[in-house]
Amino acid sequence: MTAYFATVAGLFGLLIGSFLNVVAYRVPLSRSVVSPPSACPECGHPIRWKDNIPVVSWLLLKGRCRDCDASISARYPFVEAATGALFVGSYLVIGPVWVLPAYLLFVATTVVLVLTDLDHKRIPNRILYPATAAAVMLIAAGAAADGSMVSIPRALAGGGIYFGLLLVIALLARGGFGMGDVKLAFLLGTFLAFQSWDTLWSGIFLAFLIGGVISLLLLITKRKGRKDAIPFGPPLIVGALVALVWGQQLVDWYLS
After folding, report:
1. CB 159 within 8 A of CB 186
2. pTM higher than 0.85, yes or no?
3. Does residue 205 have a pLDDT over 70?
4. 3-state DSSP helix/strand/coil percent for the chain, to nearest 5?
């Protein structure tokens, strides 16, 4: 049964990943995510349903438009495949419990926010606010159904702690740290702390470790200068995802 449900989660993730590509492209441009239908950016021909099957269509078309032969970025199937893999991982880590839908929404939200932050150096409120509200309601409803409501106060406190920490850093940095990251921290902290306090501390530590290493590498390779803005949303998110899987083990290893 585990393999069956993991497969279902993966297929669902592929479909969601296709939608996330649309959201990441259109929302920062203040465009609707439902209309007009997706079309080739070069020739403008609407994409046929058979050419919109996640990953498979891109492979069959060899990464090119059927109508004008224009190249289609490999990012599209990569995002679809990555979302599918993360959905499978979520099922395997969280299990067949009622809070699982909340974590799937959490994963989908973080994927699209990584894309918008990398592309536009923005974490759009149009995505973050409704996704955070929906995710918190889902995790509360799921916790009630699972009989784990005791974790909700800790989760909300964790979100507040992470938010407060990054807010202090943003104020001290005087513009060197985005407020979008601060607001994102509440969502991340809530889901990390729902697991445990150790998971929260691991997520915070990993975020700053990953962010520091990436920033240092960009400076060493001269791809960024000291005054250039470096998106911190992706390190925050990657740190949180790693902590959700291995955070407790990292703390146990460190304490031992």
Report:
1. yes
2. yes
3. yes
4. 75, 0, 25
